[in-house]
């Protein structure tokens, strides 16, 4: 008998049942099976004649061999697609930008939400800044999730060039943690915005109303902020046994106004300040900016005051463990730079710092082979 059924599991598959039906067809006489057909067919695939009979009767009555158990057996899903859609719709749009935020708002796990995203329970969507008067506009993407059928919120602006950009100066250091993982210093020196109050009235606001205006950051402005804001904040909050502080920043043009000679004027009260310009990578670029922007983007900003308030709140909400992870990433990148002889053609490794921190196994520093330093 060709195409014999070989049983490898408790129940026959749909194809195996079709093979049994095909073996029974030669025994049909006037739409009835001959006596002994079940027993004869059951001998070859090692089936029970009653099983063969059940397969034949099911096919005769339903014209199919598909099982009716599908969807009725197995582990029941705790959350249906409809229930997940209701949970997502109840969450404000500004709290759907990441799986972690959506998980915290709905009570579901990020993995569960990711599975429903792949199934199509909800979709990834972006809003686009559209022209208020014309069809020409530039787009700015703000990612969030939408349940199918839910309309996108409207966001419009007359022109992209009217969207204001606010500059900030942030100063951070590596957090200090004792042996019991108690925070001695959270790593945050301060965050300052480059803004000023408007000194004149305008036709766009009533008389006497003061408005926040932006400041163009040049060498003079940057030097003033470092000398009069950053340095006093370091003296007030930074824990140091030797009071020797090395200020590091990148090679941006306004940063050229800060030199060791300039810092000598503030190296008082036992403090010594030195300046170092470092090429990329920077500690701030490696994670701090991304972390604080992810917090700031969750809040809608329509004015300069909104941007300032949301950014300062995001800086306050930033946790010390995020800064600690940034400095560990910085050490890993510096080791990779040494391994590749100064090149940047390498992938950023994933250290699983959050998992190691939860397990109490996070390293204090990243090891570096002596051979790279020779």
How much strand content do the residues show? Answer: 5-15%
Could you give the distance between the termini? 75 Å
Count of DSSP-assigned helices: 12
Which strand order do you get reading across the main beta sheet? 1-2
| Second-tier CATH architecture of the largest domain | 2-Layer Sandwich
Proportion of residues in helical segments = 25-40%
Instruction: Specify the structural class.
Output: alpha+beta
CATH class of the largest domain: Alpha Beta
What gyration radius follows from the Cα positions, in whole Å? 34 Å
The total beta strand count reads 14
> If you average the pLDDT, what whole number results?
76
Oligomeric state as shown: single chain
Provide the number of structural domains.
Answer: 3
Here the CATH topology of the largest domain equals: Nucleotidyltransferase, domain 5
Order of helices and strands: HEEHHHHHEEEEEEEEEEHEHEHHHH
Broad shape: elongated
Biggest pleated-sheet summary: 2 strands, antiparallel
**Low-confidence runs:** 130-134, 137-145
GO molecular function, one term: nucleic acid binding
InterPro entries: RNaseH_sf (IPR036397)
Protein name: Transposase Tc1-like domain-containing protein
Organism: Aphanomyces astaci
């Amino acid at each position: 008998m060709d195409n014999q059924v070989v049983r490898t599991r408790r129940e026959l598959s749909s194809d195996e049942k079709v093979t049994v039906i095909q073996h029974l067809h030669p025994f049909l006489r006037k739409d009835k099976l001959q006596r002994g057909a079940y027993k004869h067919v059951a001998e070859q695939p090692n089936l029970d004649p009653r099983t063969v009979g059940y397969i034949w009767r099911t096919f005769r009555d339903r014209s199919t061999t598909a099982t009716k158990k599908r969807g009725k057996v197995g582990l029941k899903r705790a959350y249906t697609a409809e229930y997940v859609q209701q949970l997502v719709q109840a969450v404000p749009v500004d709290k759907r930008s990441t799986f972690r935020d959506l998980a915290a708002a709905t009570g579901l796990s990020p993995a569960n939400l990711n599975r429903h995203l792949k199934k199509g329970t909800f979709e990834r969507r972006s809003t686009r800044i559209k022209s208020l008067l014309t069809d020409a506009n530039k787009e700015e993407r703000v990612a969030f999730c939408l349940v199918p059928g839910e309309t996108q919120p409207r966001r419009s602006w007359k022109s992209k060039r009217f969207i204001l950009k606010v500059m900030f100066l942030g100063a951070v250091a590596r957090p200090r943690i004792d042996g019991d993982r108690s925070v001695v210093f959270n790593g945050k020196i301060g965050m300052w915005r480059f803004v000023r109050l408007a000194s004149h009235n305008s036709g766009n606001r009533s008389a006497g109303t003061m408005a926040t205006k932006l400041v163009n950051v040049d060498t003079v402005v940057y030097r003033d902020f470092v000398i009069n804001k950053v340095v006093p904040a370091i003296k007030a909050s930074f824990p140091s046994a030797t009071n020797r502080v090395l200020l590091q920043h990148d090679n941006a043009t306004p940063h050229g106004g800060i030199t060791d000679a300039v810092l000598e004027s503030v190296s008082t009260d036992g403090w010594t300040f030195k300046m170092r310009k470092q090429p990329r990578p920077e500690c701030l670029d490696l994670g701090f900016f991304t972390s604080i922007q992810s917090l700031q983007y969750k809040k809608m900003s329509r004015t300069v005051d909104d941007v300032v308030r949301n950014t300062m709140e995001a800086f306050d909400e930033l946790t010390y463990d995020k800064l600690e992870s940034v400095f560990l990433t910085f050490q890993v990148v510096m080791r990779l730079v040494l391994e590749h002889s100064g090149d940047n053609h390498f992938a950023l490794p994933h250290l699983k710092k959050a998992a190691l921190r939860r397990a109490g196994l996070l390293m204090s520093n990243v090891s570096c082979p002596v051979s790279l330093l020779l």
